[in-house]
Structures are given as C-alpha cells and as structure tokens.
Amino acid sequence: MKLVVLIPLLLCVMGVYCDMYLHNPRGSNNRLDEAKRERNNGNRLFDSQNNNRGGYNVGSLAYMAGSVLQIEWTNQHSCSDPNSNCEIILQYMCGDLVRDGSTTSTIPEWPSNCAEYDCNQDIEYGMHEPYDHYLNCKLRQRQANLFTADQNLKGNSAKYTRQNPGGTRRGYECPEERDYYPYWGPSPWRDVAILTNDATRCPYYQAESANVKARYACTLPREMIEENMSSRQPIIPITKEECEAIVYPADAQDGTGTRGVWAEVAAHGIAAPDCRESHWSRDNHLGNGIYGQTLSYNWTIPNIDHERCVMRIRYNISTGEYNGWSGNVNASLNKQGNQESTLDVATKYGFANLEAGDDRGYVFENNPEVDVFGNVEGTNNKNFELRLAINTAQLGRTFQDRSHTFAIRKRPADVPATATIRNLNVRGKRGNIVQVYPGVEYDFVPNTIETVPGEYIHIQWTGSNTNPNNNDGQGLPGTDRSNIVMLESPAYAEGGLSYYAPYTKNGQLGRNYPLNLDETTFLGFSRADLQDMAVLSSHQFRGEMSELDDAGTFYDAKPLAVTMTGHYHYMCTRNNNFSNRSQKGRIISKSEPVAYTSIGWTGGQVESQTGVLAFTQGTLDHLEDIKMEEWSPERGHEAVTAKGGADNLPGTYYETNFVVITPVEKFTVGDRKFEVRIKLLESNTDMIGVYRSDPDNLVNWVRMDAKTEGQELVFSVDQGGAYVARGTVSGGFVAGVVIALVVLVVIVGGSVFYFRKNPDKWESMTSSCRGAGGRV
Ligand SMILES: *[C@@H]1O[C@H](CO)[C@@H](O)[C@H](O)[C@H]1NC(C)=O
Ligand SMILES: *[C@@H]1O[C@H](CO)[C@@H](O)[C@H](O)[C@H]1NC(C)=O
Ligand SMILES: *[C@@H]1O[C@H](CO)[C@@H](O)[C@H](O)[C@H]1NC(C)=O
Ligand SMILES: *[C@@H]1O[C@H](CO)[C@@H](O)[C@H](O)[C@H]1NC(C)=O
Ligand SMILES: *[C@@H]1O[C@H](CO)[C@@H](O)[C@H](O)[C@H]1NC(C)=O
Ligand SMILES: *[C@@H]1O[C@H](CO)[C@@H](O)[C@H](O)[C@H]1NC(C)=O
C-alpha cells in the first residue's frame, strides 16, 4: 500500500497566498479603477505574482524635487531572516509616454491592434516600459546558462524564464529583466536602493547598477526586426560575435548587406543606488516589521522635473534548497529530455549520492513524493511517501508591485533648494480591515514625522471614487476623502508627560474630537492653511462638505514651512470612527535636529547640522538604526546640571553642541570604530578635550582622544553616548571680559552667564539659539 500525505508547505504554491504590496506611494498591483475587490487583469502592466485583491485604485501625486518620501510596503516571506534569502529592489522610471491608461485591458502586442498602428501613443492603454522594450525582449535570445530546473520553457527568447515558462506577456515588461537583477541587458529602470540579507553583495550591486554601468546590446536593421516580428525563434543575439555575424538581407552579396551593431547603451548617469541590509520581517506575515514599524525606506526624490514617473518595487526570495548566487547552479543542472534536474537535494540530506536520493524521491522537481524513512517501523510499508508541494518555478521567486504614475516637480521659488521637505500623505483605501486586505486601512504616512523649524511639510493625498460600494466608511459609498484637523488636548495624562518635554503637547492620539482651532496653531501654519486642510477650501468651492463628499479625491497643500516647535496630534474628521477605524497622525517639531539613518555593513554617514558620523565598510556587521541628536549648549548644560554632573566637566565653555548618539552600547565589529566629526562653535583657542557620558547619566564624563581639523573636532568611537567638547577660553570670547563677568555674576546671583565679545553678534545670538556657542 502506498500512502500519500499532502503537506502544505510554509511557502506558497498558488499565487493567491504570497505577496508584496506597495502602500505608499499607492501600489497598483495592476489595478486601475475597478469597483470590486478583485482587480480585472493581473497582466495589465507587469507581473506581480500577487493576490488579485491587492492594489489601490489609480490616483497620482506630485512630489517636490529633493523631498523625502517614506515608501511603505508589506512583504510576506520575511527579510533579513534566515528562513529565506531576500532582496528588495526599489527603482523608478520617468518617460513622456509613461501612463496609467483608461482601460483595464493589457496594451496590445501588435501595433495593428492600436490606434494608428502605434501602441506607444495609444493612451487608452496603460504603459510603463515602451513598446520596443518588449519587442526586443521577445526577439532576443534568452540567457541560456540560467537554471530552469525541470520547467519546460516554451521558447528560447528572453520572455521565457523559469518563473514564466509559458512566456506570458504582462504589459511591456520583459520577464527575464524582471526576474534577474542586476540585469545584463539595458533596462529603463533607475535604481533607488537594494535591501538585502547579504550586504557583502552591495559593492557588486552598486558597481553593476545601470545607474553607473553601461550595457551592450545588439541592434539589427529595423526592416529585419519588422519582418521577423512574429518569429518564434529569437533573432537578436546577446553576444558581440553573433551580433556582428548577422548580415541583412541574409543573401546579400559582396558586403552589401547591413550588419548587426553591437553597441554600448549608456548608463543612466546618476549615483549608484543605496544598498544595505533590510530591516527584519517575519514570514507568513503581511504586516509590520519589528517594533510594529511599517517596512519602509526613506527615498530622497531625485532633483528632476518630470510629469510622468512610476516606482517599482521587487521582492526576490530564495529558499534554502540552492544558492542561486553561486555560479554552480546553472543550466548544467537543468532537466534534459527525460532526465530530471540534477540539482543536488540528496547528498545535502544525508544520501550517499544522487541516485540514492532519487530512489527515495529526493529530486528537485514539481511536487515530489519523498520516502522519508525508507522503511516505516511496525509496518511493512516500504514506500511511505509524503508529497511535497514544490513548484520549481517558484522556489526562488520574485514578487513585484508598482505605483501609479506620479510627477516630480521643481520646488516653489520660496522654498530654498537646501531645505528639507517632508512628504505627508495618506495611504490605504476605504473599507474595514477585512475588506481592504491585502491593502491597508487609511493612515497618514509617515504616521509620525520629526521635524525642526526651517523644514517644510508637503501635505498631499489622493484616493478613488470607485472603491466597492459596500466597503465600510463614512460619507459617499465607494469614495476616499481625507482632511487634517488638530486633535483635542488630553483628558488624562498618558504615561509620563515628560516624554514631550521640553515641548508643548498639542492634542492627544486618544481623543476623537478636534481642537477648537479658533485660537491655536499647528506648527505655525497660517489660519488660512489650517482651514484649507480641514475643509479643503482651496480645492472645493462650497458644496456639502460635512463629510467632504463634494470635494475631489486629490488634495495638495503645497509645501508649508514649519515655524514652531511642539508635539502636534491630528486626525481626519471623516474617516476616524472609533473603534472601527482610526486615521490620526503626529508631527514632532523640535528646536534641535535629529538625524535617523540605518547603517549596515556597507557603511555610510549620519549627518546632522553640525555633526557627521562616518562608517567605513565593515565597521558594522548588521543593520543598525542610528539616531543622532544635537543639543545646544544651553539645553545640554541644563540637562547636565539637572543630573548634578556639571562639576565633572572640566573647563568653563562648551566648544561644540552636545552630540547624542544612540545606540549607547558598543555596536561595531571587534575593535572597529566610526568617526565622529563635530563643528566647533567658535574658532577655538583653548580646547581642553572631548568628553563622553551615557546620555541617561550625564554625571560621569570620560575624556576622549580627539584632534582638530580646521573648524571640526574629529574622534573615533565604537559606541554611542553624549559627546561634547569643553574649553577654558572660547575663541569668540575675550577672556578678560568673561572672567570679569563671571566674577560679577557669581557675586550677584550665583548663576553664570557668558556673553559674546562682539556686540554685533549679540543680535544673532538672541534671535537664534543654535550656533550661539558657549552661552550657558
Ligand atoms: C533573485 O535571486 C536570484 C538568486 O537566487 C538571482 O539570480 C536573481 O537575479 C534575483 N532576482 C532579482 C530580481 O533580484
Ligand atoms: C526573418 O525574416 C526573414 C524574412 O521574412 C526570413 O527569411 C527569416 O527566416 C526570418 N528569421 C527567423 C529567425 O525567423
Ligand atoms: C525614515 O525617516 C524617519 C524620520 O526622519 C525615521 O523615523 C525612520 O526611522 C526612517 N525610516 C527608515 C526605514 O530609515
Ligand atoms: C555550471 O555549474 C557547474 C557545476 O554545477 C560548474 O562546474 C560550472 O563551472 C558552471 N558553469 C558556469 C558557466 O558557471
Ligand atoms: C462607523 O463605522 C461603523 C462600522 O463600519 C458604521 O456602522 C457606522 O455607520 C459608522 N459611523 C458613521 C457616522 O458613519
Ligand atoms: C464598529 O465598532 C463597533 C464598536 O466597537 C462594533 O460593535 C461594530 O461591530 C464595528 N463594526 C464593524 C463593521 O466592524
């Protein structure tokens, strides 16, 4: 008797269970504006391999050049976890013909099916990659040395891959380019970032990126391409020799024919992409990562001006069955005729050789039945076989999502080129958590923003009018609308109001009523701006607006300057429905800058206004979220004094800001250190040294070795902490004046005040705390 037991594997077999979805900017997952839960056409623009229910209806935003956009997504099979190997690749593309289209049908393959025989210009259809990208792909030889396991590829062009053996077309995406990265041929996609389990591959990714490295491709005469458009055999070679050997027409005599041209396709000519470890996420979980934080990447939008761009995110996972990155897993292991793939899944599991494994079903093929015991004790069943749910097209698999189109625009003239602009958007769609899944409910992105006066917040959102009509939500069925209104102040103190110190707390996330906004403010925005955000007045003239129904889906407040500090909490009055749904957010505006940067093996810099932390390659062996705060001497002195540590700091002056770095514990590899550079506040004359303390302690201070380079102090450390430089005489001060004042003030009040020597600097000191070095 032969027993066959089906074991559901953790890994998904059918497309329906696995996925990666882009939530901000709104990922389409091939959806356009369908009024139902499922998208109409999973092949519309690209191959997502995702669940039909994912995606948001079309809607576009316009981001400012150089602004910071928090990209958010969910990925289902973990990253930076040993359970699978993972790469997340973020890219974008801009092009005059890039568009969302107005039909859910896939753009035709044949020009004869497009208006005026020109699919590029037929704007009815959504299009990302241009027509020629696909034409070239389908006529180009596939990379023959790829491992395809036991998949029967239906052809030899680049549209056939292990993951797409039937050569199915999705938009004008090239399946081979989709499945492999870095790709050996030209690609219209520009790389933003690569997040990977194995950051030691980063130098390779960065060198191979099409941002910086040109590719070569074979160009054949257009007539030849057109004559062979429906050829089943690829005609475009992928090597120089084969390319240049082509003569058209084939029977051309005496060198009269045209030859194939093997030519360089220039790199995009932009900086190499960011590359580092990804943050950890668990498998079989389509949600937040560690500490409940959404999986995200902060993208600084490139400094360009383009109305039609689109973002692409890919999620490449491979299992432990084979190492796809070793050159040893290649076409030599593919199925040949009747002989199965010879990928070794036998000796790894304790069999003497491939044949011994084969006898027991340990073969890399679809749904093998393995005999785990050889012989089941107590029975005479020699062949107790367990069937494994293995699809060799998917062991090693890439998911994808893309945004709808968006614009990147020049900053308004009144926003300085160097000012930080932070995008504040709305993610999610109408419905309750079940109805929107695998999308998400409404939320503001980023949910918490940290900023400082002088930065700009660019509030902007869009939505759809065609969500399913029965999805839960307020206002007109099927519609997305949002607004922003500050929340009422707390009725009870949440755990430790000291968290908010020294800033005022405005509103509380636990409240569901907006604040009486008659007299108060929000980050210093004008009353007109607040009113506009609340009732969308600039986008809608009158109408029934209690639930914003008469407004449009798109709202843009333009970048607004932050001029005040404080913790501000706000809500959307329409969508917030306690306890079914909540749409609230928070902006923390501090007087001193805080920089957050994730640094891993690759190294990099954490930069703030007067400090830089520099990590060379290999200083860290894991991804570390590094936070660098700067405290002015005034604030730092207050904190030190409050702890009773002031007497332990030698000298009389603060020569730098306090630079407070977390994590505080040592986080470097072995004896490796990172460099800290802090600007001196004044030209220094009598520096005593740099001192370190635990930021929670501030009593015990230890002197560090440091050197002065120009106007900077430079030292190396292996841990965070509070660092500050002390001096006896500050360069900007006349010692005599100071001593006289000290004596005077000590006599008078017991407190110490220092003044600058230059009267003309006095004004700048009173109007701005930062840079007023030495004042205590
Ligand atoms: C996915 O990983 C495989 C190795 O397992 C690699 O060959 C391929 O290029 C990767 N594809 C992408 C899109 O990252
Ligand atoms: C390409 O087209 C020409 C002219 O129709 C034909 O002779 C040739 O066989 C085609 N090549 C292939 C590889 O199909
Ligand atoms: C993005 O930036 C915000 C604030 O600037 C920070 O809190 C967050 O951790 C950053 N996210 C990542 C993934 O680096
Ligand atoms: C293909 O893999 C085999 C072993 O599996 C290896 O010996 C060979 O060098 C590889 N070929 C290439 C071109 O990488
Ligand atoms: C709040 O949500 C619940 C559940 O979706 C719904 O029944 C109720 O009508 C909503 N409230 C309003 C004012 O729409
Ligand atoms: C909305 O919340 C109320 C109160 O918690 C609950 O009774 C109701 O079932 C929820 N409605 C939906 C549709 O989830």
Automatic annotation (TrEMBL):
The chain crosses the membrane at residues 733-755. It comes from the Eukaryota. InterPro entries: Protein_DD3-3_O-glyco. Keywords: Membrane, Signal, Transmembrane, Transmembrane helix. The keyword NADP does not apply. The keyword Transmembrane helix applies. This is Protein DD3-3. It comes from Patiria miniata (Bat star).
